[in-house]
């Protein structure tokens, strides 16, 4: 599907719930995609991208930033504390703040550097053992802990379990955000971004629907 088609579907989903067309940020998830495909989307004027690995992003985005103005790259995958400094230099936002140790490290580095990317706290809404994210029961306390450290928390992020109806998880995440006074909601991927927008997503993370299937081979 083309970028224009995805954008049209986003606008339609926004209109259906009475939201302003263009009010949802489309994060084009470029992980694993060949550079030609990424360049093609940049050439179409798109500037917001998502990557899930620090190393992979470090290998391609400095060059793209030299070639294109106003590029924004968000980290949407897990972050190890020993890569936090590098991540703060590479990304405009980090969507995977999921534990106190990482929050502490980001706070310390933010003090030292004097700047910090926008942060989203990842919530493990499905309470899946293999998945990153703070457990829902611990979310309120963790959010206030991050705020006490002056971290720029913009919102929450989730990745629903593959076998479950994502809308339940989107609604759950929206509720946690609302009771904590957080405006940002990073939720929705290729298969469910319209449902996420219906439930208030401010950032959708769409990869394969824009770039085609990822070739891990
Ligand atoms: C890969 C990835 C996406 C994009 O998935 P698609 O199904 O290709 O749209 C979104 N969010 C996260 C966290 C991802 O790792």
From TrEMBL:
GO terms for molecular function: pyridoxal phosphate binding. Coiled coil: none annotated. SUPFAM superfamilies: PLP-binding barrel. Its cofactor is pyridoxal 5'-phosphate. The modification N6-(pyridoxal phosphate)lysine is found at residue 31. Signal peptide: none annotated. Residues 4-214 form the Alanine racemase N-terminal domain. InterPro entries: Ala_racemase_N, PLP-binding_barrel, PyrdxlP_homeostasis. Pyridoxal 5'-phosphate (PLP)-binding protein, which is involved in PLP homeostasis. HAMAP family: PLP_homeostasis. Belongs to the pyridoxal phosphate-binding protein YggS/PROSC family. This is Pyridoxal phosphate homeostasis protein. It comes from Shimia gijangensis.
């Amino acid at each position: 599907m083309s970028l224009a088609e995805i954008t049209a579907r986003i606008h339609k989903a926004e209109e259906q719930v009475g939201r302003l067309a263009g009010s949802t940020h489309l994060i084009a998830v470029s992980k694993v995609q060949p550079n030609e495909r990424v360049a093609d989307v940049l050439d179409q004027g798109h500037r917001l991208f998502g990557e899930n690995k620090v190393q992979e992003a470090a290998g391609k985005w400095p060059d793209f930033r030299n070639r294109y103005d106003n590029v924004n790259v968000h980290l949407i995958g897990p972050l190890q504390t020993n890569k936090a400094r590098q991540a703060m230099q590479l990304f405009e936002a980090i969507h995977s703040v999921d534990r106190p140790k990482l929050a502490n490290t980001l706070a310390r580095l933010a003090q030292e550097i004097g700047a910090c990317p926008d942060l989203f706290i990842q919530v493990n809404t499905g309470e899946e053992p293999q998945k990153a994210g703070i457990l829902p029961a611990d979310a309120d306390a963790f959010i206030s802990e991050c705020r006490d450290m002056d971290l720029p928390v913009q919102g929450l992020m989730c990745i629903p379990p593959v076998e479950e109806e994502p809308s339940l998880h989107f609604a759950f995440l929206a509720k946690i955000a609302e009771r904590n006074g957080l405006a940002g909601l990073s939720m929705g991927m290729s298969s469910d971004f319209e449902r996420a927008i219906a439930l208030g997503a401010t950032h959708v993370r769409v990869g394969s629907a824009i770039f085609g299937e990822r070739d891990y081979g």
